[in-house]
Amino acid sequence: MQLLDGKKTAAEIKIEVAEEIKRLKSNGGKIPHLVAVLVGNNGASITYVDAKIAACKLVGMKSTIVRLNDTVTEKELLKKVDELNKDKDVDGFIVQLPLPKHINEKKVTEAIRPTKDVDGFHPSNIGKMMLNLPTFLPATPFGILQLIERYNIETNGKHCVVIGRSSIVGSPIANLMSRNSYPGNCTVTLTHSRTVNLAEITKTADILIVALGKPHFIKPEMVKDGVVIFDVGITRIADKSKKSGYKLYGDVDFEAVKDKASFITPVPGGVGPMTIVSLLKNTLLAAKDK
Ligand code: GUN
Q1: 267, 183, 223: which is closest to 4 by C-alpha?
Q2: How far apart are CA 164 and CA 241, in angstroms?
């Protein structure tokens, strides 16, 4: 088993991004600027946004958090999005999801100018991705692709099974793994909550991408020897022995499954850190494309 070390790979990519920003600066260019809009007090969202901002600081990228109360109206949030769309100093921005129930996430996502949509969630960017045109790839799928490349994992002709069909992870990664490119050229099976005999399908996977949100769902009897596993799940479970008060669980029972896998991502330290560097790379791209 070889560990797909997202933490180490992300650190290497951060050095590359930092060098690129230094080059931009020394050529008299503008420092890329990422804005993260955070609505309310969702603990996980605060942690994610803080991690994104810390990563910006580390690579010398300008970053701003816009914090809005969870009582903000949809109209007020759309006004903020419009301001950021028009702000010439802002190269890219994200609105951290989930949003409070009274706000329509789709409406907000669609209001973001596609050239600043560094999350790659806007329908026009998803459409470009589907057509294999240059665009911002959603951060988690982009992170998985970068891990595949950096570890030289063979994908050509492989059976890739994806669990979960979310528009942020499952659907885009299923599309990307089937593209006529590297990484890609897989035969892809996209499974979800209505799939019958899931274990029969996962047992045939050469590459298994799990984005389900059910802690330790994947057990050894559900995979074949030599499988490559990407575990996207991160669930917080209360644990008094931890300083944070919780422990993070992936969707894969790592300790039980690891010896059957040829490559596997841990949780934490696998796909998560790669997601953050993908956002940095998209913001750099947004700044350079201006
Ligand atoms: N919530 C969970 N993941 C993400 C992400 O990648 N971007 C945004 N904006 N919200 C999220």
Answers
A1: 267
A2: 31
pLDDT, tens digit (0-9, with 9 covering 90-100), for 202-219: 999 999 999 999 999 999
Is 52 marked active-site?
Answer: yes
Distance 221 CA to ligand 1 centre (A): 32
Question: Do you find a cis peptide bond into 114, omega within 30 degrees of 0?
Answer: no
Hey, which residues does 64 pair with through a beta bridge?
A: 35
Pocket test for ligand 1, best of 34, 47, 48 (most atoms within 8 A of CB): 48
- Domain containing residue 246: 139-271
Tell if the pTM clears 0.85, that is, is over it: yes
148/267 same-domain check? yes
Q: What size, in residues, is the chain? A: 290
Residue 5 CA neighbour count, 13 Å, CB half? 7
Measured from the Cα of 36, ligand 1's closest atom is 9
The separation between the first and the last C-alpha atoms of the chain, rounded to the nearest angstrom, is: 43
C-alpha Rg value of the chain to the nearest Å: 19
Query: Across residues 126-139, what is the average pLDDT?
Result: 97
Q: For the beta carbon of residue 60, count every other beta carbon within 10 angstroms.
A: 16
Whether residues 158 and 265 fall in one domain: yes
